[in-house]
Design a protein that fits this description.
Elements: H1 3-27, H2 32-37, E1 44-45, H3 47-50, E2 52-59, H4 62-82, E3 87-94, E4 97-102, H5 105-114, E5 122-130, E6 133-140, H6 142-167, E7 173-177, E8 181-187, H7 193-201, E9 206-210, H8 217-221, E10 229-237, E11 244-252, E12 257-258, E13 262-269, E14 275-281, H9 283-295, E15 301-305, E16 308-311, E17 323-326, H10 332-344, E18 351-359, H11 361-413, E19 420-421, H12 423-452, H13 457-489, H14 493-525
Parallel strand pairs: 1-19
Antiparallel strand pairs: 2-8, 2-18, 3-4, 4-6, 5-6, 7-8, 9-12, 9-15, 10-11, 13-14, 14-17, 15-16
Length: about 525
C-alpha cells in the first residue's frame, strides 16, 4: 500500500468519525460529559418542519425622518439661544421641513450668518415676513431623507433580532425583504406567541418632551388642542382592584431626546415595592439630558413610550450623571418586557404587521415524514439501479452515495455553518444526490470507453477519472454559482434550498473523486484485482 493511499484512507476515516460526533446529538440525548466537551448541535429544523411563527412587517420609515427634523429643531433652538438670536417659535411644518419664526429681518440675517451652516442637512427654501414674525423655512436634504429611511429599516432588523434573541427563541430568522419590509420566522415557538408578537412590533420609542403647562388640558380633551401640541395619556392600573385610570397631558410635539442613547435598562422595586425601570445613557445622551434639564428648570418633562406618558416630573435642577428612571403601575412581567425592549434598542420607526401566520407542529411532522420517505425511496431505487447496471463498481458508487447525506447533515450542524434544514432544503438534498450519482455515471462511462479501447482495468480507471474531471467540475460549479445569489438574497425556504444545494454539490465532488477513487485504488493495490466489474 502506497503512502498516498494510506493518508487518503486515513482522511476518509477521520471524516466518518467526525460525522458520527457531529450527528450523534441529532439522533438521541447525549450524556453529560458529551455536553461539556464534545459538539452538541442537533440538526436545526426550519419553520416548515417544526412549526412556529411567521411574520411580515412593514417599517413606517417616514417617522424616522420626522425624528431627524424634530432633533434639528431642538439643536437650532439651542444654537439660537447661544447666539442670542431672538425668535418667536420653531416647529415642524411637514415630515421633511421646519419653520423658524424670528422677531424681524435683522434676526433672520443673523440666523443665515451664524446658524444655517451648522444645520448641515438642511437648506433654506424660503424667507419672508409672516404673522408670527419673519419666517425662514428649511427643508431636509432628499439624500438624507432616503438614507434615513434605509438606516431605519436596517436598524429595525438588528433591533428585532436582538429582541428575539433576548426573548429566548431558538434559531430565529430575521431578514430584510425589499426596501421597507422585514420577514421574521421563529421556528419551534408554540407558546407565548402573542407575547412574542407584542415584543417584536412594540416600537419602544422612548421620547422626552415638554409638557405645555400654559395650555388648558381640559380644553385639549374637548378637542381644542393648541398648535404644536398633542394630547397624550398616562394610564395607571390599580394592582388590587384592576381599575384603570387615564390622566391627560398636553405635551409639545417637539422631541427633545429619544431612547437611541440608552445603554442599559434594568428593573428594581422602589421603597413602596412598585417596579421601576432605571436607564443609563451613553455619553451623547448624558450631555443631551443634562442640557435639556438645565434649560427647562421648573418645567414638566414628559417621559413618553410609544405615545403613552409614563411620568411627567418637574425638573427641579440640572441633572447630570447620565441616568433616569421610568415609573408606572407595572406588573413584574410588564416591567421586564419593557426593560428588554429598551435594552435591545428602540425601533427607529413603528412597524406594521402585514402577515401573521402560525404553522402548527403537525404540519412539520408530516413534512419531515414525507421528505424522509421520498429521500429513502430515491436512495433505494438508485442503489439498486447502480448495482444492477454497473455491478460491483455500482456498489462502490452506492457507498459514496450513502455518505453524501451523512456528510451534508454533518456540515450543516457544524459550528462554522449551523444551517437550518427546511422542506425545500430536503429537496436540495435529493437534488444533490442525483447530481452525485450523475458524476459517478460520467466517470464509469468514461472507464467503459477506455476498456473498449483495450486498456488495462487500472489504466482505464485512471484515464476515466481524469477525462470526466473537467466535465463534472463544470456542471457542479455552474450550479453552485447559480445558487449563490439565492443564499445572498433569498429568504427562509429559498435560502434553505440554496444552502443545502451548494454544500451538497461540494460534498458530491469529494465523494465522487476522492472516496470512490480511494476504494478503487485500495482494490488495485491491496486486493490486486485483475478484472474490473463495471
Amino acid at each position: 500500500m502506497t503512502q498516498s493511499l494510506q493518508w487518503r484512507i486515513g482522511l476518509v476515516a477521520v471524516v466518518l468519525v467526525g460525522c458520527v460526533f457531529l450527528l450523534y446529538p441529532s439522533v438521541g440525548p447525549v450524556p453529560e460529559f458529551w455536553q461539556k466537551y464534545l459538539p452538541n448541535n442537533p440538526v436545526r429544523l426550519g419553520l416548515d418542519l417544526q412549526g412556529g411563527l411567521h411574520l411580515v412587517l412593514e417599517v413606517q420609515s417616514e417617522v424616522a425622518v420626522e425624528t431627524v427634523v424634530d432633533q434639528a429643531i431642538s439643536e437650532a433652538s439651542s444654537l439660537m439661544k447661544e447666539e442670542k438670536i431672538r425668535y418667536n417659535d420653531i416647529l415642524r411644518t411637514s415630515p421633511t421641513t421646519l419653520s423658524v419664526f424670528l422677531k424681524d429681518g435683522e434676526q433672520a440675517a443673523l440666523f443665515d450668518e451664524k446658524i444655517l451652516d451648522k444645520l448641515q442637512n438642511f437648506k433654506k427654501v424660503s424667507s419672508a415676513p409672516a404673522e408670527k414674525g419673519f419666517e425662514i423655512q428649511l427643508q431636509l436634504d432628499p439624500k438624507v431623507v432616503e438614507s434615513t429611511k434605509q438606516r431605519a429599516v436596517r436598524q429595525a432588523v438588528d433591533t428585532i433580532r436582538n429582541r428575539v434573541d433576548q426573548f429566548g427563541v431558538a434559531e430565529p430568522d430575521v431578514v430584510m425583504q425589499g426596501t421597507d419590509r422585514i420577514i421574521v420566522q421563529l421556528p419551534g415557538l408554540k407558546e407565548d406567541i402573542n407575547r412574542a408578537i407584542d415584543l417584536i412590533k412594540r416600537t419602544a420609542r422612548l421620547e422626552f418632551k415638554l409638557v405645555d403647562d400654559k395650555a388648558d388640558v381640559n380644553a385639549g380633551v374637548k378637542g381644542d388642542i393648541p398648535p404644536g401640541d398633542e394630547l397624550l395619556y398616562k394610564v395607571d392600573r390599580n394592582a388590587k382592584t384592576g381599575a384603570i385610570s387615564r390622566t391627560p397631558y398636553l405635551v409639545k410635539k417637539q422631541t427633545l431626546m429619544t431612547g437611541d442613547v440608552i445603554t442599559d435598562a434594568r428593573v428594581h422595586p422602589d421603597k413602596m415595592g412598585r417596579m421601576i425601570i432605571g436607564m443609563d445613557f451613553n455619553h451623547t445622551g448624558a450631555v443631551q439630558f443634562e442640557r435639556i434639564t438645565g434649560e427647562h428648570v421648573r418645567e414638566h418633562l414628559a417621559i413618553i413610550l410609544d405615545n403613552r406618558v409614563y411620568s411627567a416630573p418637574v425638573i427641579k435642577d440640572r441633572i447630570s450623571g447620565g441616568s433616569a428612571i421610568i415609573e408606572g403601575m407595572f406588573s413584574p412581567e410588564e416591567a421586564h418586557d419593557l426593560a428588554l425592549v429598551l435594552r435591545a434598542g428602540s425601533l427607529p420607526a413603528p412597524v406594521k404587521i402585514l402577515e401573521n401566520r402560525s404553522v402548527g407542529p403537525s404540519l412539520g411532522e408530516d413534512s419531515i415524514r414525507s421528505g424522509r420517505d421520498a429521500i429513502l425511496f430515491g436512495i433505494i431505487l438508485i442503489v439498486i439501479g447502480m448495482a444492477v447496471y454497473y455491478k460491483w463498481s455500482g456498489v462502490v458508487a452506492d457507498v459514496a452515495l450513502v455518505l453524501n447525506p451523512l456528510l451534508l447533515f454533518a456540515v450543516m450542524v457544524s459550528p462554522g455553518l449551523r444551517a437550518t434544514l427546511t422542506l425545500p432544503g430536503l429537496a436540495g438534498v435529493a437534488l444533490t444526490m442525483g447530481m452525485a450519482i450523475d458524476a459517478n455515471i460520467l466517470i464509469f462511462e468514461r472507464v467503459r470507453e477506455e476498456l473498449r479501447f483495450g486498456k488495462s482495468p487500472r489504466a482505464a480507471m485512471e484515464t476515466g477519472y481524469n477525462k470526466a474531471f473537467l466535465t463534472i467540475i463544470d456542471t457542479h460549479l455552474t450550479n453552485i454559482i447559480a445558487a449563490l445569489p439565492l443564499i445572498q438574497f433569498g429568504t427562509g425556504p429559498v435560502k434553505g434550498f440554496a444552502v443545502t444545494l451548494c454544500v451538497g454539490l461540494i460534498i458530491s465532488l469529494f465523494t465522487a473523486f476522492f472516496v470512490t477513487r480511494t476504494i478503487f485504488d485500495f482494490g488495485f493495490q491491496v486486493k490486486r484485482i485483475k478484472r474490473l466489474s463495471i
